[in-house]
Amino acid sequence: MSHHIVIIPGDGIGVEITAVARQVLEKTAAKAGLALTFEEKPAGGTAIDKMGVPLPEETLAAARQADAVLLGAVGGPAWDQVAPELRPERAILGLRKALGLYANLRPVKVSPALADYSPLKPELVAGVDILIVRELNGGIYYGEKGSEKDRAWDTEVYSAMEVERIVAVACQAAKVRRGKVTSVDKANVLATSRLWRQTAGTVAAKFTDINLDHLYVDNCAMQLVLAPRQFDVIVTSNLFGDILSDEAAVLTGSIGLLPSASIGDGTGLYEPIHGSAPDIAGRGIANPIGTVLSAAMLLRHSLGEDEAACRVEQAVEAVLKDGYRTADLYRPGFTKVSTMEMGRQILDRL
Ligand code: NAD
Ligand code: IPM
Ligand code: MN
């Protein structure tokens, strides 16, 4: 059976990093005897320039029909002044919503080779292995919005059903990890958070061997840098998850390392957690590892190819162990490589 993958390179470094991840998928497939077909589609600023909209119909239609979607990143200063409903970021928000991708899995794992690359002390970050489960189809991202001349508003809405299904994803994930779920909210202030906290308790109680605790988001932000190893699975709302995952990326040494999987009702979408990095775009120096590890998540979650996914993850680990570093992680004494060269080193170890 053949699997069809839609690749959306997007903007900025998205083009450079998806090219590497595609090669990794191609080689992994060849090794594992998997038949994969690929199709590239426009979205984001590139699509605005070419077709006038951030998420063209043909891209959405292709995503719906695909077995999985791999996305680089969208956005950039060139499109910062366009109307809000036409911004490049709308492509991602539109895909997540249209495909019903309510669960965003963001693993934050400190590589043994990089334990002293975080600005935090190595003894704090060594062994960190956190899964952030971010709600992705609701909250303040999708509530009613509006603006007048000197007033603007965004509203946060959550239904019990939306909280139930994301907390269930977190508990399910924790069952095959260390069994601990930390639900993060702002229940001392927000009504949505009070519903969140109560619902999380009810859902977790239905799982055996799950230890649920609750943290306010401000405290969680602090705990993440104070004692990150206390966390196993963190489950939280769309906005809190966005912010906490960029913070948690610092534990690993670079945001360029972090992958994600967005899953739910429709085709799974896989993307690094970082953006289009306009400050380094077009120079061939971006770290492709977050996208390569997103491709591994694609193999695991959408294609059921766990072994192939593990091979990709092991190849990445081996390259880091062997001292290859893109600019974001480079230090004297190590081998500095471009985006493409990092890709070649990963391919060599597959
Ligand atoms: P960013 O994640 O693009 O960049 C933040 C910093 O991290 C920059 O210094 C960048 O150089 C660095 N960085 C990011 N990825 C890297 C990589 N792979 N290798 C090395 N360094 C890397 O965040 P930003 O600058 O706030 O946003 C830039 C644009 O990207 C904005 O338009 C934003 O809306 C968009 N964005 C898109 C996505 C997405 O497509 N999923 C995610 C976040 C931001
Ligand atoms: C992310 C990004 C997106 C988000 C933006 C680009 C819409 O920051 O995937 O983390 O806020 O979800
Ligand atoms: Mn983000």
TrEMBL record:
The keyword Protease does not apply. Residues 4-346 form the Isopropylmalate dehydrogenase-like domain. Keywords: Amino-acid biosynthesis, Branched-chain amino acid biosynthesis, Cytoplasm, Leucine biosynthesis, Magnesium, Manganese, Metal-binding, NAD, Oxidoreductase. The gene is leuB. InterPro entries: IsoCit/isopropylmalate_DH_CS (IPR019818), IsoPropMal-DH-like_dom (IPR024084), Isopropylmalate_DH (IPR004429). Its cofactor is Mn(2+); Mg(2+). Catalyzes the oxidation of 3-carboxy-2-hydroxy-4-methylpentanoate (3-isopropylmalate) to 3-carboxy-4-methyl-2-oxopentanoate. The product decarboxylates to 4-methyl-2 oxopentanoate. Mg(2+) binds at residues 218, 242, 246. This is 3-isopropylmalate dehydrogenase.
